[in-house]
Design a protein that fits this description.
The chain has two helices and eleven strands. With about 140 residues, it is mainly beta. The strands form two sheets. Strands 1, 2, 3, 4, 5, 6, 7, 8 and 9 form a nine-stranded antiparallel sheet that branches. The N and C termini lie far apart (about 40 Å).
C-alpha cells in the first residue's frame, strides 16, 4: 500500500527500502507518496527515501531519512528536524527550535549524515538553504 512521505517512520525505513510512487489512475503523486520494496511496483531506479544515520560530534547517533536528492532529516520524539530548507532561508523561529532540539538532547555540531543504501553523505554545521543567487548557504549553529 502506498504511504504518504510525511507519514514514514524510522521503523518503516529500517524495515524496508522505499521509493517514490506515481500512479495517475489511482491518484498517487510522486511528490507525496512512497512504496516499500515489497510492493510489486517498487523500483531501485526510482528516487529512494532512505534510512540515514546521524553521527553527532561527541559520539551520539540518531536516525532519520535522506530524501534521495538533498535533504537529510533527523527523527526524534515523533518529530522530523531537517538540515536542508531548499530555497527558504530558515527563519529565527526555525533556528531557535533547532537549537532547542540540539540543547535538550546534548548534541553538538557538526554532524555527519549518511544514507544507508546509497552511501550519500553530508556534513552539517547548521541549517542549509539555497540563496537568491543559487548558492548553498549554511546558518552555522
Amino acid at each position: 500500500m502506498p504511504k504518504r512521505i510525511e507519514e514514514l517512520t524510522v521503523a518503516d525505513l529500517e524495515g524496508n527500502r522505499w521509493c517514490v510512487y506515481h500512479n495517475d489512475e489511482e491518484g498517487y503523486d510522486s511528490f507525496e507518496f512512497v512504496i516499500p520494496d515489497t510492493h510489486p511496483d517498487f523500483s531501485e531506479h526510482a528516487i529512494e527515501i532512505e534510512l540515514a544515520n546521524f553521527s553527532f560530534s561527541g559520539g551520539r547517533v540518531f536516525k532519520g531519512l535522506f530524501d534521495g536528492a538533498e535533504s537529510f532529516s533527523v527523527f526524534h520524539n515523533g518529530n522530523w528536524h531537517s538540515f536542508w530548507h531548499g530555497t527558504s532561508k530558515p527563519n529565527k523561529n526555525t533556528v531557535s527550535e533547532f537549537k532547542e532540539f540540539l540543547n535538550i538532547n546534548q548534541l553538538a555540531l557538526p554532524v555527519l549524515a549518511e544514507a544507508a543504501w546509497s552511501g550519500v553523505s553530508r556534513t552539517y554545521s547548521g541549517l542549509q538553504y539555497v540563496d537568491d543567487t543559487g548558492a548553498i548557504r549554511e546558518l552555522v549553529i
